[in-house]
Design a protein that fits this description.
By secondary structure, this protein is an all-alpha fold. The protein contains 13 helices and no strands. The N and C termini lie far apart (68 Å). The C terminus is likely disordered.
Length: 279
């Protein structure tokens, strides 16, 4: 019977690979459990409905998001699983970060704004209010201190992405390969979420998910150019707030519509006419 030393278990416990695999597994279980509670609460007992409201409400969801997306990387930093330098928290060159970050951020915003403008123009007569691009983000900006919700989302996402990126960099001893593979894990993890897979087929939800994917790619490029997580978060927040503000302005003077079951990448005049006849 094979025997294992204490050193083996210690190395396994503090290995970045173990932490990343555990994080992905926890995310898959949590996302499917959230979907299950959401489905059961529609026609189930008072107890399940109360549990769904407490865990998936605004406050409960924010606490769980902070505990997982920020708490886990912070615990990894404390225990030495990843280092602050690899995460991009210390020893950063702000001159390079500002010069490269501004240029990359402007190019990314122009590209995202162009796509959002084209999308908003083609759906202005058909999309209901809740089906408009970045509907959730726009709703957050309409309440007092709603920008703080966007800020929390940015912090959660950047901390999570940086943790995967730093873990893979330490495992592979290669900044570029670790960053790219870390990004791939983030995208794979996102696809395992049933709510995201469904949301990608729904107008008003897909745009926010696609914006997160674009920001994940942008964050990886920013890190490779600057090695600065703070710059990644600032650019991410600027892109999110800027795109949301632009969407509010684009949709500001346009009326309600009847679009149902629309997929952003399959929009045609014929599809729009079909949805109007069905609605």
């Amino acid at each position: 019977m094979p025997t294992y030393s204490i050193d083996f278990f210690s190395q396994l416990m503090f290995s970045p690979l173990t932490w990343v695999a555990s994080s992905i597994l926890l995310y898959i279980v949590g996302s499917h459990l959230a979907q299950l509670l959401k489905n059961l609460a529609r026609s189930s007992t008072w107890l399940l409905a109360s549990l769904q409201r407490s865990l998936l409400g605004v406050t409960g969801e924010m606490v769980l998001r902070l505990a997982y997306f920020v708490g886990l990387p912070y615990l990894g930093l404390i225990l030495g699983v990843v280092g602050p330098r690899t995460m991009g928290l210390v020893d950063v060159d702000w001159t390079i970060s500002i010069l490269n970050g501004i240029g990359l951020g402007l190019v990314a915003f122009v590209a995202i704004a162009s796509c959002l403008g084209y999308y908003a123009y083609n759906t202005r007569d058909f999309a209901r209010h809740e089906q408009r691009g970045l509907a959730t983000e726009m709703a957050n900006l309409q309440v007092p201190f709603g920008w703080s919700i966007l800020l929390v989302n940015v912090v959660c996402q950047e901390a999570h992405w940086a943790f995967y990126r730093a873990s893979l960099i330490l495992l592979l001893h290669d900044v570029y390969a670790g960053s790219v593979i870390g990004l791939g894990l983030v995208l794979l993890e996102l696809y395992t979420n049933p709510q995201h897979r469904y949301g990608l087929t729904q107008a008003g939800q897909a745009e926010g998910i696609l914006l997160s994917i674009a920001c994940a790619i942008l964050s990886t490029l920013t890190y490779l150019l600057t090695g600065n997580l703070w710059a990644c978060a600032i650019i991410h927040l600027g892109i999110t707030v800027g795109a949301t503000a632009l969407a509010r302005r684009l949709y500001g003077g346009w009326g309600e519509g009847q679009l149902r079951g629309w997929r952003p990448w399959r929009f045609t005049a014929r599809a729009a006419a079909d949805t109007r006849r069905r609605g």
